[in-house]
Amino acid sequence: MSVFDVRELRLPVVQAPMAGGPSTPELVAAVAGAGGLGFLAAGYRTADEVADLIGRVRARTTEAFGVNVFVPRPVPDPAGAARYRAELAAEAERYGVPLPEPDPADTDDWDAKVRLLTDDPVPVVSFTFGPPPAPVVAALRAAGTCVVVTVTTAAEAREAAALGVAALCVQGPEAGGHRGTFAPAADPGPAPLPALLAAVGAATGLPLIAAGGITTGTGAAAALRAGAVAVQSGTGYLLSPEAGTAPAYRAALTDPAFGSTAVTRAFTGRPARGLRNRFIDEHDASAPAAYPLLHHLTRPLRAAAAAAGDPHGMSLWAGTGHRDARPEPAAEVTRRLAGG
């Protein structure tokens, strides 16, 4: 049984899995067709929805692709989520939506997703927010799947490597979206991506995929020189026509009014980097470490803001290189990143 090897990509470019809509089957297939590795995001979807997305990718390409899964972890501060819910009453009134009562036992349909991916394997499965249980890694490997784990420190890398995974996605603080720390309440480390690649490489010797602020060919080349076998970009694809990026989100990415990014727990309870907006300014200081309760709590607010075209109520995830993102077809973005 031949297992996919990230070192054998025609172009050493990985399209990051972006939960919440941007990672469409069209985007995944376009990146794969160009010679890179496209990723579906299983986060916040049921196993049945993921199965449908996989089928849609397979209908568009015979090239290898991946599926990313969030590893469920205990909620560090559920009481804090209740306090935060009271704070968000004014936001609910602003957007005319009710606030839900999130379930602390929610696992994001973990068991069913694992069954799906072992019974009907895809070439690559990556995990974020922690190491998957050893039996899950073993089952996926037995099914012929390349298993990748996202890490943010050398210690996390050693823990993941001990499971027998094939590669690591090394995520620096420059990355847009959630930082994939194993501990939900952990603050992301400040070590820049090149230093993190060196530390993780020395700790494990596994193939490394570099992630964090990479939106140009020059940035990609620098990460490859620093020891990565491939680079991962999410922000670089947000403006591509194949991406499912909401209109107000697209507009904000090129709006000079949104000139900086910030790391915040305000939307989900986990550290995540996005364009700085009103919601972050007003709620970041009081947001508890209560993922995924805050994600579910703010979800209707973010949806209502998107529907109203109001970027100041949305989670506009973006890395530090967002100003270099271009409205190009995904295949062109892939080739441009590889061309550096």
UniProtKB/TrEMBL annotation:
Basic and acidic residues biased stretches: 321-340
Chemical reaction(s) catalysed: 3 propionate 3-nitronate + 3 O2 + H2O = 3 3-oxopropanoate + 2 nitrate + nitrite + H2O2 + 3 H(+)
Name the record gives this protein: Propionate 3-nitronate monooxygenase
Pfam families associated with the record: NMO
Family of this protein: Belongs to the nitronate monooxygenase family. NMO class I subfamily.
Region (Disordered): 320-340
Keywords carried by this UniProt record: Detoxification, Flavoprotein, FMN, Monooxygenase, Oxidoreductase
Entry GO MF terms: monooxygenase activity
Cofactor dependence: FMN
Gene3D superfamilies referenced in this protein's UniProt entry, alphabetically: Aldolase class I (3.20.20.70)
CDD domains according to UniProt: NPD_like (cd04730)
